[in-house]
Amino acid sequence: MAAAAVSQTAAKQARGLEPLRTRAYSHAAQHMKYSRHKPQQLQDNKPSVACSFEQSLSRTNISVHSGLQRNSSAARLYEDALRHESDTAISSTGALIARSGKKTGRSPRDKRIVEEASTVDDVWWGPVNKKLSEEAFEINYKRAVNYLNRRERLYVFDGFAGWNPKYRIKVRVICARAYHAL
């Protein structure tokens, strides 16, 4: 009985999320009041790249090019997702809908942590926290960098993990799809 109720609720929610891909509605995304990022002119196609940012990114071997955007506004990321990614739309509630392909959702069993002196005694190793050798990490890192360097557009988000300034750490996310930077 409970499964049927959940199924009916899910069906009702799905009907309420009719994709709206009209130009007027996506244009409205430019005027969203809330943004975690400093607003950016949508007509400006130049990346907001500072010298120190270029230097820090060059250490990763990721090339800085004209398609790179750093800390774009939510409105700009919505526009890019709608413009450049198939199967994206805006729901009737204003949320961005993006289809990520066959593999959706979290995959906690795919998490790997490099086994080194700083992690060997501090990580709870097991089915979720799997060991990865430094050599395997280097191979995967090079593959990821090569993938990112072949993309026309890259998005960089600089933020924090954790809300308390005393304990939070700086995080940089570099991705090839606009919705990953939201």
Report the strand count.
Answer: 7
In quaternary terms, these chains amount to single chain
Numbering strands along the chain, what is their spatial order in the largest sheet?
1-6-7
Task: Categorize the overall geometry.
Answer: globular
Poorly predicted parts: 1-51
The helix/strand order is HHHEHEEEEHEE
Mean pLDDT, rounded to whole units? Answer: 76
Explain this structure to me?
The chain has 182 residues and is an alpha/beta fold. Helix content is 31%, strand content 16%. It is built from five helices and seven strands, in the order H-H-H-E-H-E-E-E-E-H-E-E. It has helices spanning 2-16, 23-28, 51-58, 74-84, 134-149; strands at residues 68-70, 88-90, 96-98, 112-114, 130-132, 154-161, 169-175. The strands form three sheets. It has a three-stranded mixed beta sheet with strand order 1-6-7, with no helix packed on it. A two-stranded antiparallel sheet has the order 2-3. A hairpin with a 7-residue loop joins strand 6 and strand 7 (169-175). The radius of gyration is 20 Å and the shape is globular. The two termini are 37 Å apart. The model is unreliable at 1-51 (pLDDT under 50).
